[in-house]
Amino acid sequence: MDKTDTALIEILQENSRITISELSKKLALSRPSVTERILRLKDKGIIEEFSARISLKGIGRNTVLFIQLSSLKVSPEVFEAMIKKDQDILECHRVTGHINYFIKAAVNNMNSMSLLIDRLLPYGDVNTSVVLKSPVPYRHITPYVED
User: Fold this and answer.
1) What kind of fold does domain 57-130 have according to CATH?
2) What is the pLDDT of residues 14-66, one digit of tens each?
3) What are the extents of the domains in the chain?
4) Apex CA 119: angle with CA 115 and CA 136, to 5°?
5) What Rg, from alpha-carbon coordinates, does the chain have?
């Protein structure tokens, strides 16, 4: 990866709908060269997908939660199969230490939060934190490039 690839990644994270022609102008490369770089970055698994970032508040998911699940009462496979189906769950991470999973969820109100917690209780001990503020709600990421 070089500085041009890094610049390409930065631009695509800001606007993944940018045209190849616009990318070509911004990067001072030919359109085929830009296309080739994008395909190479996809083939290497650096670009995983192109998607839209949706506002949680915009779709009525006004309450964001971080949930710690510990003392797992079922196998990880059983829990993970269940959690993948729950539409309130945004992220789920199995971690080391005394906590088994960190879960990020978004619900529309306190009643929905209560129902989510009730769904999780059979699987282990649940500790829930409501997000008050997100000073860094999302960050574009770029690779380290050696000079």
Assistant:
1) Alpha-Beta Plaits (3.30.70)
2) 999 999 999 999 999 999 999 999 999 999 999 999 999 999 999 999 999 99
3) 3-43, 57-130
4) 75
5) 20
Here the tokens at position 10 are 């930065």
- Write out the two tokens for 116: 């989510």
Where is 4: in which H helix or E strand?
Answer: helix 3-14
Domain 3-43 architecture:
Orthogonal Bundle (1.10)
Calpha distance 33→119 (Å, rounded): 50
User: What residue type is assigned to position 110 of the chain?
Assistant: M
User: Amino acid identity of 79?
Assistant: F
Which pair of structure tokens corresponds to residue 89?
A: 């769950």
User: How big is the chain, counted in residues?
Assistant: 147
Euclidean distance between CA atoms 84 and 82, whole angstroms: 6
